[in-house]
Amino acid sequence: MARKIVRSSFFFEEDYKEQMAEVPEGKLQPWPDNNQLRYIGKEITRIDGYEKVSGSAVYTMDKMISRMTYAKTLRCPHPHARIQAIDTGEALGLDGVLAIHTYENTPEIEWYGNSYLYDPHLRYEGDEVACVVAETEAIAEEALDLIRVEYEELPFVINGEEAMQEDAPKIHDSGNVIRGEPSQYSRGDVEKGFEDANAVVEGSYYAQVEIHNPTEPHCSVVNWEGEKLTVWDSTQGVYSVRDGVAGALNMPTSKLRVIKEYMGGGFGSKLWEGKYTVMAALLAREIGRPVKIVVDRRGMHLAMGNRPDSQMTIRIGAKEDGTLTAIDYHSVGAAGAYSSGTGTGWPSVTMFKCPNVRTEEYSVFINAGPGRPFRAPGRPQGHFSLDSAMDELAEELGMDPLELRRKNFTDKDQVSGNPYTSNLLLDAYAQGAEAIGWDRRNDPAGSGSGRYRRGIGMASQIWGGGGGPPAYAYLKLNRDGSAKVIAGTQDIGTGTYTFMAQIVAEVLEIPMDDIEVILGDTGVAPYCGGSGGSTTAASVSPAVRDAAEQMMQKLASGAAATLNIPEDQLQYADGVFTDRNDDTRTRTVSDIVGEMHEQVLTTTGARGENPDKYAINSFGAQFAEVEVDTLTGRIRVVKVVAAHDIGRVLNKTTLLNQMHGGIIQGLGYALMEERIMDRNTGKVLTDNLEKYKMPTVMDVPEIEVIIVSDGDSQISNTGVKGVGEPATIPTAPAIANAVYNALGVRIRSLPFTPDKVLDALYS
Ligand code: MOS
User: Fold this and answer.
1) Is residue 120 part of a domain?
2) Which pLDDT score is estimated for 12?
3) How many angstroms does the Cα of residue 587 sit away from the middle of ligand 1?
4) Which of 230, 358, 533, 720 could in theory staple to 190 by disulfide, Cβ–Cβ 3.0 to 4.6 A?
5) By three-state DSSP, how is residue 409 classified?
6) How far is CA 490 from CA 496, 550, 601, in A?
């Protein structure tokens, strides 16, 4: 298929991202539904599963190179301080210490415009003060204690609304409100909308700071060979790390290779290069040896990103029949000490049909670790306020809360007015409601009795995730008929290796065992975007299919040539071409490649363009049943039903992995996870996994997953929309509404810890 270059844009994390891309000119036939496919959509275990469970998989942390050295970071103990003096003499004298970098002896590298790599102005507890490299990790650790730093402690602010006050300590010279003004959106006439309403509800909601806590810590191994730098990194984006590190070090990308092998999660905290990688690269260059840097769990809690908090006020008006007339939304989000998006209003703007909507959202600097994208940035917060308020509105109107959502279903994108390529939300509502037994809920809320009260609630979800170009894949055939597929994407634990092999197996009809998958290496693999925004499978799978289909065409012409018959006289099944007129005459894939001697058959596949004038979104609803112990205030989630339209499922097993993970993460957000800071000292109290509570297997409810969609043929040749983020968005709001249904009192602040439950019940 001929190629062309286009300007293309699609939704990635918090925004539309516009890029140039080479795309196929034509379109492949869409695949039929999964029940007519052999590998796609089936329960297929991960091709890298054995390596992972046996411990033989080499993660970045396990990477060993001869002459390896180890780096450790000294972090600021204060929420806001300026370094007056720093003395590294004693630390440098320690046997085995090789070098120490501070702001005094390191080139001034600008770090995202806000600060320098080592900045004497320290803006949060955990900000980087110095980095030591030594022969062993233990020596580096010991050396940190020997660095003498004199800090001038500065006044600090750790609350977003307080940071907006005139007299608040300034974290950056530009002021604490990022860009100096709120982000705003509006359509229609909100005041008029409220005038037209028969019922209006208003509420203030708070969603807390959540820490990513991927299982695998942030880490890099860096190695210079002359001018060339290789970085092994635990990252969601090898190409973004390549560009970011090259930019920071002011070196050509051709001299930088980034490799990500196995990876234990990122959730958005590993989308871009970390400071630690650049710090390690500078030390490695100085000492002429490879450096390994692993961020410890405390460093991850303080400095590797978080889901920013959000103080939200939402006002919704509706007609008597439930038709929405206006939504007014206001939020303040604490970005931490460096710039990051904190908007949470998108659900209110896009989820329901509503002619009059206004949002005003402030992102504010505070003296705390910087926010980063976190699994559906802004959405769990924004749906907590929106879906709670929708429930309050339903009660005000005397309506079934699910019926209120159905009533305001939209088949058009509320911002652009474009229709969706597909939207099966109504099916998700219906099937989810049936699976949870929606009729069993308390009506009215809180009408149960006894110590343990059960309740059922639900929430909905909208996300992007359709992906788009650019994304490319190479496919090569070996002489024995086996294949190798190579793409510059990465498997962050979601199953990318496996679906790439499935697609090649589906098209070429060769066993999955004969397919080698190479990804996560800028040195060999063609460009793909970062694994974020639930776009990986949606962007990469069509490129892999395109490469495989092109290969089929090459093989067909090769078979025709070796059999000396026209192509249309061939039939193909399970890796074997047969002459229709004489079924004794056959050629296998390896026969064809073999006859071509040392030539290697290769193709390059590309992700096609998204359709014009359509919106691409995933949709879903989750339903939760909870049991609240009214004596202790503990909430047990009994069951979660997740019903989603996410386009085609590529692999049922890894789909369930992602759904379960997202729901468990959402449960943690609903009930226990929270960064707690001491208002007197400005320090983080929850800087380890003992104090920062995460769900364990004891907290996991029964989970039922219902996928109401098959391939969306309008968006790509595989029709995938993506599931990673949709899985977690509605969980906490559904649990919150279930708790209301159990108790009849509303809690407006996450997480729903026992003290808040008791407070709501008895005060
Ligand atoms: Mo993004 S928060 O890594 O999907």
Assistant:
1) yes
2) 83
3) 46
4) 358
5) coil
6) 7, 23, 24
